[in-house]
Structures are given as structure tokens and as C-alpha cells.
Amino acid sequence: MSFIHERRIRNSRLLSRNTIVNLLRFFWVVLVIWCEFGVFFYSLSDCKWPDRELKEAGSTQKPTRVLLISDPQLPNPRRSGTSWFGYDASSTRYLRKGWSVVTRLHPHAVIWLGDMLASGRYVTNEDEYENYVDEFKGIFTTDKSVPNYFVPGNRDVGLGESSTFSKNARKYFTEYFGPVNQEIHLAGHRLVFIDAPGLVDEDYRRHGMGKQYETWTPAVGGPIEFLASVAIKASSSPIILFSHIPLSRPASTSCGPLREKGSIRASAGHGYQNMLGKETTRFVLHTLRPAVVFSGDNRDYCNMTHHLSATDANILAKTSVREVTVKSFSPSRHIRRPGFQLLSLIPPDSAASPHGSTFADAACLLPDTFRIFSSIYLPALVLTTIVLLYLNISPDRHRHRFSTLSPISATRSRPSSPPPGPESAIWSNWSPRRLGGLTSPAVALPPSVTVRVPSAKEIFTFRALSSSSAPGSPHDSPLLSPIPLFHAGHEDEMNPAHYPSQHHSDHVWPSGEDVHEAPSFLPSPSARRSERRWPAWSRSFVFRGRRRRITIALPTWEEMKRFCASDNGDSISRGKRRGMLWRLWGDGMSVALPAVVTWALIGWLFF
Fold first, then answer.
1. Residue 546: helix, strand or coil by DSSP?
2. Per-residue pLDDT tens digits for 311-323
3. Strand partners of residue 294
4. In the chain, N or C terminus with fewer CB closer than 10 Å?
5. Phi, psi of 31, rounded to the nearest 5 degrees
6. Which of 270-279, 517-526, 545-554 has the highest mean pLDDT?
7. Alpha helix (H) residue ranges in 291-377
């Protein structure tokens, strides 16, 4: 019998309420660590530098690795606030986590393809712009030995005429990020960065005056003048062009399998233009003769080839130019998975053949936040709610199930002694929570009935189970009074005074305090006072010749739950429903709190 009770207790503990709630807490902590941080590191498992392509072409020199980032669009902290909630806050956190894992690729240089600041063109105060840039550089930190090159975007310097744009946007950009048009040399290549928004503005003025590029007088310091200066330099080094706005192409042009949806189409509006004009695209390709073009702005990935006409082919000595539009680094409603681009360069003189490739690039993707929410968080939330509903929909049934007495020790002097029969009071199913139960007889036993009083070694002792789910159970229950087992063959008689009585007029607590009319299996008043852990205010005073004390204390968690679950006297069912919802809310908060703390702590320490 003892073995059965021990097995039931062990099984009940494995499936107890506290065990299930703790398992849910652990599950959510692991889920948050993986979905908020682990997936970013996992996304790099398929992201490799394209060095292998160059080695397979016969190159033996170590490539120079360049990281291409497009459209981070950092929100302005002064305009969006410092709240951790909302789209701007979640976008900033995504940028922090994404950049922290991308820098583990250890690039030799970083090129930013425009739209570094989401609202840089609207900032009119230099102090605000400086704080904005400090926020950007605080998030996207790199080693001092790694150079950063910036291409202006329409959100950085503006595009077109508008009263809301800052007149000093280009001045601020040049001061804090660098020239809007520049050329650098890296690994035997000429990297050309052009001011695409300025090129669009100048193209509008040229077109408005009805002139062709051949007869147009470029603006001093403008992008057209810069492109002409690059073209006249005599150099055999390949040119790689970087532009924020993509070049023109037909609307039906395919962007390859890595694009999520649609293609790049010609469109323009307030402060933006999706593509350069046809004449401008032809002028750029004719003037620079680039080996490859990298652009941004569109948010989605696009890999296409510009086919040149026969006239252009004679001039450029090539029939096509490949263009790659790099994915946005920040999350957007237009795409599911942000990304970036890896570019490896080798000097042309180290190539296996004069016409061999001197560069290779590869696209990398970051996690899909929408899929994480819809495929992981939402099902996990539904499953957790179902489990908590099951635990709270009928808590009394769970409490009654394990409210039994279990033996803690049983010793016998002789193995031949018969076990107690089913009539013994020790094995009755009486519990403190039941209204009715077995009672002692009110009359004396007949003289013909004989009982045997066992010795102390033969007495079974039992302890009442203490369960957190049964509020009426004693906190420190003493051993129950030994109950003699009745056996035939003993000559002693028992009178009614020998029977234990269930009802007493006076109740004495173990602490020594006398409490009248207190129900059994309830803690003493002193025990209740010792349970309170919340702060309380107490004051003593004399009123009408008697000393009085008033104490004001905040209700404990259990008291608030009992209050919400209590009956108002007019609707018991309504009180039960309110109590169940309150318990469900409390359990939900207790499960969510460790996960939220873990999320905030890891984000603060590592991101």
C-alpha cells in the first residue's frame, strides 16, 4: 500500500501545476533566445565569401573582401523617441542584431549604398544632425583599420525641390560622411561612387532645356562633370560603379530567382525616383565602361544584365554590363528577408588569364521577422494558452485528486501480525476539505466486542499531505495521533471516552495561542502574520482609555487572487469566471516574465 501511495505522489509531482508552469517558462526562455538572437547567427551558416570562385579561376592571391550594405535607413531617435515599442524601435533593434553578426565576417572594407539615415534630408539643425550621425556610427561600429565609404541616397540629401527638405543636407552629408562623388583604388580596381540623386536633378534641368548630353554644360562640381573627369583618366584598371538609384531597364526584365516579387519598374514621386532615365543610363555606361554596377534603393534583390546596342558595343568593346541591386539591410514591408552583398576582389595582374574575372560577389540573407512571428511565436502562444487554460479551468478537481493521506513510517514487531483491515480509520478517504466524513461512535461498544491495544512499535503513524493547491492544509502539520488497530483476542474494553472526537469546544494551536471557533487545518494567526512579505504601515494610539493599533498593508498576491475569485453574494458563477481569468492572467505573466527579462538582458549586454 505504501508503494502505491509513493508512486502516486511521484507521478503527481511530475505532472503538478508548478512543474508544468516551470516547463513553460523554460520553453519560452529558450524560444526567445533562439528567435531573437540565435537565428541571426544561424543565417550566417550559408553566407560565405565568394573567394572560392576566384581560386577556381586560377588565382593564388588572397582576395580583398568588401561588404556592401544598402538602405539601413536608421530612424531619427529625436523624431521617433526612445520607446522600445513601435516600428522604429523594432527596426533599430533589428539593425543592431544584424550588424553584430555581419561584422563577424571580418570585411576589409565597407561600402554603404545610400539611405543611411531615414530622415537625414529633413534635419535642418546641425546639432541634431551630428547626434543623428553619432547614433548611426554607434550602432554600425567597425574596427579603425576597416575603411567605410558612403554613397548618398535620396533620403540622405533629398531629390527634387521641396520646402520640407533641408537646404544644408548635402553640406551636412559631405561634412559627416564624405564627398558625394568620389573615386578610390582598391585591389587594382577603380571604385566609382556617384551622387545619383544629384544626377537625376541635373538630368531634369538638361531635359527641361532640351539639350543632349553631348551639348550639355555640366554643373560645376556636379555628378556629370565628375563622370567626365573619371573617363578621361588613362587607366587599364577595371571600373566598378556604385550608385544608389538603379540604372534604367525594361519593365519586363527579370531580376533572377533571389528576388521575392515583381521587378523594378519606372516610377517617380515626391523625393524619389526608382530608376535613372534611359538617356542618363546610356551616358553613364558609355562614359565609364564599368565591369559591373552595384545599386540599392529598391529594397529587393535584382540581378540583371544591360545589353548594349551595336554602336555602344564598338565603343565599349563589350556587349553587356551586369548590374546587381543589393537588398535592403533594414526590415521593410516590401520584403520578407533583408540582406547584404559580399564582394571579393583580386588585382587584375594576378588573374589566371587577361580576360579572366577579377571579382566575385554573393548575396546573403537575414532572418524573416514576419515568419518568426507567424510560424513560431503565434503557435507557441496558442499552445501555452491552451495549457494554462487546462490548469486553471477547474483547479478544485486537481486539488482533490491528490488530497490524501500517505504513510511515512510503518513498523511491526512481528511479521505474522495481520495488516489493518479496510475498516481502519487510517485508510478512510476523509480530507479536511470535505464537509462530511466518518465520525466516532456516540455509544459504548457492547461487552461482547473485545479489542486489542497494540504496543508502540506496532502503531502506524501518518502525516497529512501539505499541498500548495489546498489552501486549507496546515503548513507544519504534526503527526496525527496514533490510532490503535483493532484485533480480536484482547480482553480490554473501551468505553466511549476512549474514542477520538472530531469536534472540540476549544482548540489549542502548537504556538500556544488559544483560538476559539477556528476551523481545523488552518494556520495560526501568528503563522498568517509571518507569511506577509509586503511593506505595511502601523501606528499605535490611545482611544477612550484603551491602547489601539491600526495597520495598513498592501494585499498579498494570494489575497488579491482570492478577492477576485470570491463570491459577491449575488452571482457565484460570475465570481468563478473572474477568478479563473485572474489566475490565467497571473500564470501568463509568470511565464512571460523570465522570457522578457532574458530578452532585455541579452539585448542590452550583447546588442
1. strand
2. 554 454 567 899 9
3. 242, 324
4. N
5. -65, -45
6. 270-279
7. 310-316, 369-372
